[in-house]
């Protein structure tokens, strides 16, 4: 029976752990608190992933080490490097594959908003540079590794613009104040598709040594996504109002989270398109579909819509938490 170590028990880490356990594997989930999904084949361990000695010990005998961790959004340059270095060392010392949960930050703004696996990593922002350095260090670390890159998450437990802005408006029957263009086409990645891609590619040596995009459904606007969720749950579609772009930028002068969000706002003020055809054709993976993600979200949140009321206040700078 093979063994895997999963660092992180957020929506992706928990989904990876469950997939592996249900396939008969022994799984060790590592978090600071010792949290994680309950399953007879899942062992939950409380440990600091930045402790390289401890992580190497916990990875002993594992075939795959999954990086599904997430760091405080305002402290990426401080928190990510030691965790990434510890994972590279743990994978190298134990001859384990390092499977990295990635995102699209490393590309930076792109003309037309389209990104494929061949798009160069050209980000100049703080968070984009952190992700670029993590990937380059992994490639230079003398290990078998790959990165699965997805767009903004939807699904149970996923944090992002849908859960922070749209869902509360739908549930309460209020207006959603959107920090972006509600009609710009946008790719959404189902958390379950990210987990399935990580697990599939970790077992296939063709994946190692490069990055892959998670197969995701065709892009839809925020407005369409909200309408589909509302129709699925029998709720009125929310009214959407565009938050002026200067709001977050001005708030960022005093509020660290607002500053971090403003750095990435290009993702929602224009097209943001993930091309995952190469991953799909190479590994035979297809997305479960947005409706599957929205049904899962509806079941987990069990919304009880109220009658449409007065518009909600615009979101505070800390209301929109990023998915990764």
N-to-C CA distance: 31 Å
Beta-strand percent range: 15-25%
What is the N-to-C order of secondary-structure elements (H for helix, E for strand)?
EHEEHEHEEHEEHEEHEHEHHEHH
- The total count of helices amounts to 11
Number of strand elements = 13
Please give the oligomerization state of what you see.
Answer: single chain
Largest beta sheet: strand ordering: 3-2-1-4-5-7-11
Supply the CATH superfamily name of the domain at 3-152 and 188-213: NAD(P)-binding Rossmann-like Domain
Structural class: alpha/beta
Q: How much is the radius of gyration in Å?
A: 19 Å
| Poorly predicted tracts of residues | 303-324
Largest sheet: 7 strands, parallel
Mean pLDDT across residues: 90
Find the CATH topology of the domain at 3-152 and 188-213.
Rossmann fold
What helical percentage do the residues reach? 25-40%
Note the overall shape. Answer: globular
CATH architecture group name of the domain at 3-152 and 188-213? 3-Layer(aba) Sandwich
Region (Disordered): 298-324
Organism: Pseudosporangium ferrugineum
GO molecular function: FAD binding
Pfam families: FAD_binding_3
């Amino acid at each position: 029976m093979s063994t895997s170590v999963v660092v992180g028990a957020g929506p992706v880490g928990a989904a990876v752990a469950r997939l592996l356990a249900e396939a008969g594997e022994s799984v060790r989930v590592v978090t600071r608190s010792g949290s994680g999904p309950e399953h007879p084949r899942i062992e939950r361990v409380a440990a600091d992933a930045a402790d390289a000695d401890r992580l190497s010990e916990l990875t002993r005998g594992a075939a795959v080490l999954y990086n599904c961790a997430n760091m405080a959004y305002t402290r990426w340059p401080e928190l990510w490097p030691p965790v990434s270095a510890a994972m590279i060392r743990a994978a190298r010392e134990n001859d384990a594959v390092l499977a990295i949960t990635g995102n699209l930050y490393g590309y930076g703004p792109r003309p037309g908003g389209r990104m494929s696996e061949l798009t160069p990593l050209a980000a100049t922002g703080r968070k984009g540079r952190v992700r670029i350095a993590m990937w380059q260090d992994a490639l230079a670390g003398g290990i078998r590794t790959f990165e699965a890159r997805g767009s903004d998450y939807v699904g149970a437990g996923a944090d992002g613009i849908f859960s922070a802005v749209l869902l509360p408006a739908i549930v309460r029957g209020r207006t959603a104040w959107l920090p972006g263009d509600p009609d710009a086409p946008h790719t959404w990645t189902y958390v379950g598709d990210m987990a399935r891609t990580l697990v599939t590619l970790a077992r296939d040596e063709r994946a190692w040594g490069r990055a892959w995009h998670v197969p995701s459904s065709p892009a839809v606007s925020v407005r369409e996504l909200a309408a589909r969720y509302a129709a699925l749950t029998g709720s009125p579609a929310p009214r959407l109002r565009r938050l002026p772009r200067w709001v977050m930028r001005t708030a960022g002068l005093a509020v660290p989270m607002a500053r971090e969000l403003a750095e990435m706002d290009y993702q929602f003020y224009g097209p943001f398109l993930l091309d995952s055809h190469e991953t799909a054709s190479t590994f035979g993976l297809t997305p479960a579909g947005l409706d599957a993600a929205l049904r899962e979200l509806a079941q987990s949140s069990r919304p009880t819509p109220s009658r449409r009321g007065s518009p909600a206040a615009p979101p505070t700078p800390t209301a929109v938490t990023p998915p990764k």
